[in-house]
Amino acid sequence: MINKLDAALSFHQNALRIRGQRQELIASNIANADTPNYKARDLDFSAAMKRAVAGVSQEASRAAQSMSKTSAQHMNGVPSSAQTSSGAAGEPLFRPIIQGSVDGNTVDMDVERNQFADNAIRYEASLIMINGQLKSMLAAIQSQ
Amino acid sequence: MSLFNVFNISGSAMSAQSQRLNAVASNLANADSATSANGTPYKAKQVVFSVAPTGSPDATGVKVSKVIEDKSPPKVIYEPKHPMADAKGYVTMPNVNVTEEMVNMISASRAYQNNVETMNAAKTMLLKTLTIGQ
After folding, report:
1. Residue B60 CA to chain centroid, in angstroms?
2. What is the distance between the alpha carbons of residues B113 and B22, in angstroms, rounded to a whole number?
3. What is the least distance, in Å, from the CA of A14 to any CA of chain B?
4. Contact yes or no for A29/A107 (Cβ under 8 A)
5. Which of A24, A38, A109 lies closest to B51 in CB terms?
6. The dihedral sign for the CA sequence B23, B29, B31, B32
7. Considering A86, A106, B12, B59, which has the largest number of Cβ atoms within 10 A of its Cβ?
8. B114 vs A30: CB contact, 8 Å cut-off?
9. d(C-alpha A115, C-alpha A109), whole Å
10. Residue A55 has pLDDT above 80, yes or no
């Protein structure tokens, strides 16, 4: 029974989690706007959402894609698909360069601010929807 | 929790930018310091940013990796009455480029403002999240 309540809320829970993750990535892009050689990154929300709904955790898919580490000193292998826009399912990707700068930084502040505001509003939309779901559930269990 | 990490990221950027602003203030204040503690003219200081890992694997903050001395040549002006003037009457002045420093200052303060706004937005989102189910 509790399972079903959990399943009813899990879609928006996943959406909020991925929106939060994306917000964090964009915040780090904004923070590194003046760092030499920093490459802006972003998340493909729909791919990440599809994967979350399919029930594959990020760690599991990461482990499946990357090389296995046999020593603590090994570096994290970046799966080759994470660098192309086609193969990666919800992994952070690098943003295409609109106007390159001399220090190798690819952060475009207009794009980042835009995406930041957009993502924040979509996060709040998810919150409103989850609230609505909770309200209708409460209405169903209360005999009024 | 991703959103709490935004505070770390923006906070690191704010402290890095304020350090940059500090360097600018020091350079502007010493734009005419013909002598310093070691007897040579003041050398302009520049900060170098680099990424700093935070709690999450993908999102990174900022740190000042080093403070370097500007390599550009010092300004040499002709002022025979100056106490630091050499035999020919030339004084070696600091290599501070005031225009460049002003531009640096504006850039640092704008970047700081951006990060404050980022932090505020994350705070609003977290507060809204706390009201789930009310």
Report:
1. 19
2. 16
3. 13
4. yes
5. A38
6. negative
7. B59
8. yes
9. 10
10. no
B2 to A24: CB separation less than 8 angstroms, yes or no: yes
Place of tokens 């600091």: B94
Q: What is the DSSP string of A73-107?
A: TPPPPPPGGGGSTTT-SS--EEPPPSS--TTS---
Chain A residue closest to B115 (CA)? A31
Tokens 């460049």 belong to B100
Residues 6+ apart with CB under 8 A from B67: B23, B45, B46, B47, B48
Cα three-residue angle A24-A28-A31, rounded to 5 degrees: 135
A100 pLDDT band (50/70/90 cuts)? confident
Number of neighbouring beta carbons within 10 Å of residue B58: 15
pLDDT digits 0-9 by tens, B91-130: 999 999 999 999 999 999 999 999 999 999 999 999 999 9
CA pair distance A135, B4, nearest whole angstrom? 27
Could you give the CA distance from residue A110 to residue B30 in angstroms, rounded to a whole number? 35
Provide, as residue numbers in chain A, all residues whose Cβ is less than 8 Å from the Cβ of B66: none
CB B51 within 8 A of CB A21: no
Q: What is the DSSP letter of A91?
A: -
- pLDDT value for B64: 94
User: What ipTM score was computed for the predicted complex, to two decimals?
Assistant: 0.85
Looking at chain B, which residue has its C-alpha nearest residue A25?
B59
